[in-house]
Please model this.
Amino acid sequence: MANRIPDLLLRSERAISDSQLQRAIDFATSRLRDHRAKIMPRMKGWEEMREQARELRLHTLAHLDEYLEALERKVMQRGGHVFWARDAGEATQYIIELASRRRVRDLVKTKSMVTEEIGLNKSLEQNGIHPVETDLGEYIVQLAGETPSHLIAPAFHKSKEQVAEIFSRHFGTSIPAEVKTIMGVARKELRGKFLAAPMGITGANFAVAETGTLVLVTNEGNGRLTSFLPPILVSILGMEKVVPRLADLELLLNLLVPSATGQRLTTYVSLLSPPRGPHETRGPQEFHLIILDNGRSSILGGPFADILTCLRCGACLNVCPVYQKIGGHSYGATYTGPMGAVLSPLLSELKNHDSLPHASTLCGACAEVCPVKIPFPDLLIGLRQSQVRQGKAPFGQSLVFSLWSWLWSHSRRYAFSARLARAFWPLLGNGRKFPVVSGWASGRDLPPPAPRTFRDLWHERNGRSRG
Amino acid sequence: MSAMGEAVDRDQFIANVRSAVEAVSRRSHELASPVRRRDGGPAGEDRFLLFRDCLEFAGGQAHRAAGSEKLREILGQIIAGRNRLVAWGEDLPAGTRQVLSEFGVEWLPPLTLSPSNAEQGIPPSITEAQVGITGALLGVAETGSVVLASRPGENLLIASLSSIHVVLLGIDQLVVTLGDAFVRVPAMFPEGLPGNVAFISGPSRSADIEQSLAIGAHGPMEVHVIVISS
Amino acid sequence: MIHLPSGQNKARAEKVSLFVTCLVDLLFPEVGLAATRVLERLGVAVDFPPGQTCCGQPAYNSGFHRDAARVARHFIEVFENSGAIVAPSGSCACMVKEYYPKLFAGDPVWEGKARALSHRVFEFSQFLVDRLGVRDLGARYPGKVAYHDSCHLLRGLGVREQPRQLLRGVADLELVTLERSEQCCGFGGSFAVKLGSISEAIADEKIAHLERCGATTLTACDMGCLMHLRGRLSRRNKSIRTVHLAQILAGSNGVDRGETHG
Model:
């Protein structure tokens, strides 16, 4: 179960040697980067907006109990049900029991990372309930029996030939590898599902406490069909996604969408305040909001709470040098890239994702693009530090750093260590057998210690007196 | 999952959250007034030009009809060769119904509002429509969006299910920013927001296969907004 | 013809303490000499506090903050009485400038000392351009040169144009545009060791960009990045040379061990 460095390395090496995957990652991330870069000139006052959004999100977290209770009141006033799920099990159990009571066998679902996080589809299937993913990317991933590889481009790792093959197999007919044709097949198939499904399940990009409104941000239109056509709607909300006021959405949408897809606004932004009101002929008649904790309250109020301000735009993935090489699946977690390297180990205490905070060069490109200014390098370093504090760091490493800091916090001991390294260099196979750096030497040449250090040369040049 | 058990779980859930946030100073982050990007922005025809530019950026098309004659001409171009036309008449700008009728539009009958009733089936005239015509609450210039609400709901069905969605909008219904819309829309519904308020910006799209943009994933493949002066 | 570097008058009044960094001291002393030569040629009085060791970044980034603080306290003691401190490394300068105050946050003694030091630390190119106002050092380096933006220098210290301005002042040097020059090289300190194969894959991408732009020399302001890329280039038998910016600015001759080292 544990996701250790060797496991991470193994999956990563497989991804690195898969040339089709490498091309796909490169193509998808560079496209998304380009789109973002192209919209930026239209976004006046971007830096100011980031700062304002960060403050708004931190304020919301500091008052999260109040905003969640306000949200609950509003939803219940409209006749919706609110269920508070402390973990994945409670959330899935609630949906399974609801579906059984309403005799639901087939349901439609929008793309939602939170449902991935709680393993909803698997639990539903085990109970004889068949969810159909209606986002094209998620649908592909579902038919392939896989998991999404990117926050906003879940199937980018599949070529159109591979997608055509998956579709051909599923529909038992030969489907050509043309995007338009494939999409037409999915449109026709899923249209029927939307119209027939007794229940729709969605996530939520935001939930407005002031009005009890959920916000769905999509491009395909599956979100609004899922939330509008079936008579029963179930929405799962990661509890940190609450927003104080309707008017705050302007700021958050103006940051989220350009960061995610480079659009000014996604094609569809649905403000849902279900169930349908007395003047409405359409829309769900029954609504259940599931507010999910699943580890979030243990992050809240702690040193890593900043990660709960994340809007799930995916911009950090697209600029991350590590993500660009290993892709989403190598992380072995629901949340990937820089945001996942922070969030995944914090969320899941059972599945140990301790390797993920190390899957970063700390280059800071993520923090630079983050629309809510999450200080990723600080959080990643902090997570590494807390591993050290908890005694989770490998013993050898702790020993090396203790010895190192003892030697290098003193100039004569430092000089001694330099002489020692030089003397033993040939014995260590010119660095190749040096235990600390063997991970280095397998693919890169290691420079030998200089015959004379800079300080030797300096003293020679300037005389000891000046030093 | 008894009601009693739920209440206990709920209280414990909230208590967990409360004790976590009380560990930090709540005052450290004050709630500022909602940030609204308001610089007045362009008015009149310039506002329409901004709207057109942004809607085109989103893949849709904006048209300007300063009179019935022009409206007829634009509709003629959009509708040419398509025969299954359906419209929801309630939110249309004044004076446009007559022109639409000339094109043989099928008007959806007003529905009886009975929320307790069993689900009313979706009429085939909507599911099979080639062109669906509706009004809108607002247009948002800087995003190229039109805003529709489920009052009563047939308008949203048309907007979701037809292949081509045509929106008729009065020029005075255009606002500049999203923030303007988030103020104007709730003001239209003092008794509370409708169940579904949809911001629609251009045609349905997906880039999920090899990042290549494809139009018409689940919704309309074309979105036309005709801005009218009365 | 004697080419007098600009900004020399301003420089004559300057005294700096060189923090040469552990990598340069132990593995690449020629870089330290080159930096010294450039500064001295401008008339700057250069001092080398001999007690110096390392900034402590390897331990800090790995989460061993007690060990990092031990080394950092030593650094602070050594440089406490210095004026301006110049380091030929964006990464180490950033560690002292940006991360020391975080490392010692809440410490009644050391936080203040760290903050006081923070204002006096400069990366080499930043010092030349921002503090001395130098652009042209009268150096000569024939060849097509690509510049790589080291992460801490670019995103930590906000230094983007300064090294480029200095390179544009070098005679016979053609500064070519390196695609995605701001993308990390994959070094990342302990990352390069812990997740070596990912680190190499990232380096390979940088190498691909380098080859595409036709550069014969790669330069940067950090020996961490350069050691990593040099090690990968030489393992893959590539002939692109790697030199620190200071070596280019010091002139192509007289670099003691030159780029053949390693």
Notes: Chain A has three domains: 43-48+59-294, 310-389, 402-466. The mean pLDDT of chain A is 94. The longest helix of chain A spans residues 19-39. The two ends of chain A are 56 Å apart (CA to CA).
